[in-house]
Specification:
7 strands; alpha+beta; globular; Alpha-D-Glucose-1,6-Bisphosphate, Chain A, domain 4
Length: about 150
């Protein structure tokens, strides 16, 4: 069976270094509810979305100004049957120069149409990538989920 992982891309006028730096500033585009670090190889961080989603990511590949890969080491998504559906999936950001623009390609390896979370999770990713991360890169201000109390455990 061929699995089609969720992937999306966008182009910006900023440099690959600016895009790369924004990707690694997870609190500024994904969620302010984050414990840990998200900048160096082997860094680990946990994100919280109230009582809906908590997951822990580990930076497993980091090529400056080109690529970032997170391995989801633990997850609890309470709105689907298999609450650990994200565990052992990978989240990848590839940054490349395309003519005079910078392309950011986001892929969540393991988030495919066959999995229960696909619709809800791909819609959420689309919002975070195309609205929040794009704005962080282009304007310096993302639209992350605001800080709140942490309730779930990964």
């Amino acid at each position: 069976m061929t699995t089609s992982n969720y992937t999306t891309t966008f182009l910006v006028d900023q440099t690959p270094a600016e895009a790369f730096d924004a990707i690694n500033d997870v609190r500024s585009w994904w969620t302010e509810n984050l414990d840990g670090q998200s900048k160096k190889l082997k860094d680990e961080f946990t994100v919280y979305f109230g009582d809906v989603h908590v997951s822990t990511q580990k930076l497993v590949e980091l090529i400056p100004n080109k690529k970032v890969v997170w391995l989801v080491t633990d997850s609890n998504l309470n709105f689907i049957s298999d609450k650990s559906e994200w565990t052992n999936t990978q989240i990848s950001f590839e940054v490349t120069k395309v003519d005079d623009k910078t392309q950011v390609r986001f892929t969540h390896l393991g988030l495919a149409p066959e999995v229960e979370c696909f619709d809800a999770c791909s819609n959420a990713w689309s919002e975070y990538i195309h609205e929040s991360l794009f704005r962080l890169i282009t304007t310096g201000k993302g639209r992350p989920t605001p800080a709140e109390g942490k309730t779930l455990k990964a």
